[in-house]
């Protein structure tokens, strides 16, 4: 059995814990990392889950794999002990990897692994395959309901108001994936996942639109390469956290299920 610990117990962490509790072959839940045990314990009890609740930087002894479902700023505290032990961290806050590149070095030094799941995007395996050839350009266009973008640092910094009276789609950002994740850290982990699969954060172009007509987070990838041209669109149903799609937690479930599967589909 592979012991999995979950760092963070928001919308994604709760869904993932519930799915593991229902049963994934070869996977067992080892612990939950959270700041407020008094809040988490009743929720775990309601799900019929009995595992330790510990600080997020103390998960390593309880797990072979730690899934990070926390604010991006907490990634080093979560990942460093796990990587030093030569274990695996599944990182959903992919944008934080650009701010903390030492984590990749730490993994290499100690034989640990950092895994970035597909998350809210489609076609990362196809993008990675194109990267084995020559990719000429990558463009990500993200369109979100207004509620999914409110509070982003870039909007506050630029004085862009989208919470009152926005009647039509408004482009609120155009730049690189590296710039996007700095300005929209809770929204654009998808941009970094795409960049890591393809041509890197400085060659991956990103546009972000606030669209009052939308109810789903929509991402369109355009790739031009010497082996294939790709145009891929996904419309994600938001979770209880409007910045995150429901599919994000399920992409981690799929990743964990493959660990013990005798037939694996997709790279």
Quaternary state reads: single chain
Report the order of strands and helices.
EHEHEEHEHHEHEHEHHEEEH
What's the number of helices? 10
Q: Tell me the overall shape.
A: globular
CATH class of the largest domain: Alpha Beta
Going by CATH, the homologous superfamily of the largest domain would be NAD(P)-binding Rossmann-like Domain
What order do the strands of the largest sheet run in, or round the barrel if closed?
Answer: 3-2-1-4-5-6
Strand content: 25-35%
- The CATH architecture classification of the largest domain is 3-Layer(aba) Sandwich
| Secondary structure: helix percent | 25-40%
What layout of secondary structure does this protein have?
Layout: E1 2-7, H1 11-22, E2 27-33, H2 37-46, E3 53-54, E4 65-68, H3 75-84, E5 88-91, H4 96-99, H5 102-110, E6 113-115, H6 124-131, E7 135-144, H7 153-158, E8 170-176, H8 177-183, H9 189-197, E9 204-210, E10 217-225, E11 229-236, H10 247-259
Parallel strand pairs: 1-2, 1-4, 2-3, 4-5, 5-6, 7-9
Antiparallel strand pairs: 7-10, 8-9, 10-11
């Amino acid at each position: 059995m592979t012991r999995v610990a979950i760092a963070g117990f928001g919308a994604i962490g709760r869904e993932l814990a519930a799915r593991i509790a229902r049963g994934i072959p070869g996977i067992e839940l080892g612990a939950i990392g959270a700041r407020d045990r008094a809040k988490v314990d009743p929720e775990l009890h309601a799900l019929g889950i009995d595992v330790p609740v510990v600080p997020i930087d103390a998960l390593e002894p309880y797990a072979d794999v730690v899934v990070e479902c926390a604010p991006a700023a907490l990634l080093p505290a979560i990942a460093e002990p796990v990587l030093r032990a030569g274990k695996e961290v599944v990182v959903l806050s992919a944008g934080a990897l650009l701010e903390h590149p030492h984590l990749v070095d730490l993994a290499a030094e100690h034989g640990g692994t950092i895994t970035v799941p597909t998350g809210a995007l489609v076609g990362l395996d196809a993008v990675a395959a194109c990267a084995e050839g020559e990719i000429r350009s990558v463009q990500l266009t993200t369109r979100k309901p207004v509620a999914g973008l409110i509070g982003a640092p870039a909007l506050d910094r630029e004085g862009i108001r989208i919470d009152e009276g926005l009647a039509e789609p408004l482009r609120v950002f155009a730049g690189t994936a590296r710039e996007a994740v700095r300005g929209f850290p809770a929204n654009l982990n998808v941009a970094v996942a795409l960049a890591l699969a393809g041509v890197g954060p400085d060659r991956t172009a990103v546009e972000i639109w606030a669209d009052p007509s939308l109810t789903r987070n929509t991402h369109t990838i355009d790739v031009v390469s010497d082996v294939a041209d790709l145009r891929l669109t996904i419309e994600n149903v938001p979770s209880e956290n409007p910045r995150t799609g429901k599919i994000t937690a399920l992409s981690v479930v799929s990743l964990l299920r493959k660990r013990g599967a005798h037939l694996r589909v997709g790279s």
